[in-house]
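#struct-help
A.M.: can someone run this one for me? Single chain, 256 residues.
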Amino acid sequence: MQDADTLFCFAHRGYPKRATENTLQAITHALEFDIDGVEIDVWNVGGELIVKHDRRLGRLLAGQELLTDLSPAEVRKRLLPGGEQVPTLYEVLELVGNHVQLNIELKGPNCAELATRVLESYVRDNNATFEQYLFSSFDHRQVYECLQRLPQVRRGALVDGVPLDLAALGEPLKAYSIHHSLNFVCPEIIADARQRGFKNYVFTVNHRHDLELVAAMGADGVFTDEPQLIMDYNQSRTAEMMVEQLAGSDSNFPHP
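D.P.: on it. Structure tokens below:
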């Protein structure tokens, strides 16, 4: 788990290098590591929140239709590579339980009302809390709707660029975090977000050099397809800090 000078690790769509992304199997593989959180994508498909990234079929599911033109039953009939069904948000909530944080990214339109309702139902039925959840989206109107409907759940604003007013976009959302694209993240927006009280998370970081780059900028954490990479980085940083502490304490004692 995250300590000072280490990075918060969100397993991006589970562990897609070990199982098909956004599946229960991929999430199960991610939970085998000492990760801090899991990120998933949801679409409102016929009144059901389906866990999937793409708006159109063809990459992982057979067909060319728009996801939102199908019924939930039709989507779940088309098996993913590996033979799994596309899961629902509720199934993911049950799997994750209280093990780690869950970032629910609202991908398509009209997700906010349904997402808050499903999460509220799950928390009530399982005597859970809202503390481990985070709603996020590039659609900041839906993030704002989540604030109105279920303010107990933290909110993340995704940005794929550098706004003129930097991290000010998080203010009306009462955001917990700003989620920056690796392609555009810069020290100025990270510093501005921190000054405003927001966490800084960067997506999607899969290489050690990029990891060190965003860490040097002051990022709090990353979304990654390679949780093992983040675990190794955090372990090395912890070891370095221990060596520094030992060296510092040793220097406080007189030597013969």
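A.M.: thanks! The chain has a mean pLDDT of 94.
D.P.: also worth noting: The helical segments are 24-31, 72-77, 89-96, 112-125, 140-149, 187-195, 208-217, 227-251.
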